[in-house]
Fold:
Amino acid sequence: MLKTRIIPCLDVADGRVVKGVNFVGLRDAGDPVESAKAYDAAGADEICFLDIHATHENRGTMFDVVQRTAEQCFVPLTVGGGVRTKEDVRDLLLAGADKVSFNSAAVARPAVVAEAADQFGSQCIVVAIDAKTVAPGKWEIFTHGGRKETGIDAVAFAKTVVAKGAGEILLTSMDRDGTKSGFNLPLTKAISDAVNVPVIASGGVGTLDHLVEGVTKGGASAVLAASIFHFGEFTVQEAKEHMAAAGIPMRLS
Amino acid sequence: MLTAIIDYESGNLHSAEKAFQRMAQETNAGEVIVTGDADVVARADRIVLPGDGAFPACAAALRGHSGLFDALREAVEDKGRPFLGICVGMQLMATRGREYEDTKGLDWVGGEVVKITPKDPSLKVPHMGWNDLVIDNPHPVFDGIQTGDHTYFVHSYQFHVADSAQRLAHVDYAGDITAVIGRDTMVGMQFHPEKSQDTGLRLIANFLNWAP
Structure:
């Protein structure tokens, strides 16, 4: 049986982890590679890097981080942030990413998803959707870290990018991100029901029950979290055991 | 001992290279190189064929490197060199693929590669993530591996094997999905051993030390 995935996400800026990871025994808690290795050893099902200050000038540092991670972690790695063209996808794949995530660029020009999927296959193309509730049962896409309103319906957009070849949706509830009040479950459910590819729920996790709800009520295939793991509140293994106890199929090692 | 990972420009080989090199070093299994050179493939002691993306594109890319394609066939078919296909590299071992269009495979293991259609319509395609293996037929590459061990899958098409004796393991996704195939000196893995943590590294080590 396919297991629900737990994906720790590391925000990276200029080659360093932004929200420091508070693991015991890390030589350098700011080094994304060290953090990724710790999560790999802890049984993470995948690891996600988000380059939050991606510019043309500092792309090289991210390639280096991805390359060093891929040399040492034999677990799937998704990389996002500042990905604009299929050439960006190619560069990250060659550096060692397994999946590459589009965000604002897919909103500005959805065709880029098809260009990348046609060349590299849907299996490695993720579209990250940042959405906020604008009315009950209605959600819109926001870009630029949630600051820029687009007026685009999130459910319709998800269908569009999947039709263009996205193999997975990384859905962040912008009105929940950082609140620790749980995923936006109606949004997660609406997107998960609308598309036939896996949906990763993100944004708002504060407790292990929130992870459970993302799957049982939101219909997510995977859950992504940052701070609850980074600050040592819970281990990946504790999260897995909690979800398994709630009846969700998990990979327990 | 030389293991050649074939580079025919169909996917990221960086992780595969590192994983095979690490396990070759740990088990004294010789040298591992990524190559698109037919001469290197011809003299390799074992061969790994990776592959990501669509079956027709991968098949065309492999055939497009004609020297490489011939060297691969000769090494595996005539000389019986141990061979491992990974993901689409495994699917290419089939008689034919039915992704977008009918495409001829290597026809090393009889069967077809068809779209995954789970009996439970709520299940997502691609089949993406960790699934637990059910071993159907014992094989040296399973040394230390048991039914219930997890490996990482990401694919939308599956290999329907004609002869059940050649299906070595499967996983459940509202129906069986072929996970490992094999005959003679050939094995294929639908999942990514280079992304499957300890279980995957063990499978790689087993292949590198397999002496059929």
Notes: Chain A touches chain B at residues 1-5, 40, 45, 67, 70-72, 74-76, 93-98, 120-124, 167-168, 196-198, 221-222, 251, 253 (CB under 8 Å). The radius of gyration of chain A is 17 Å.
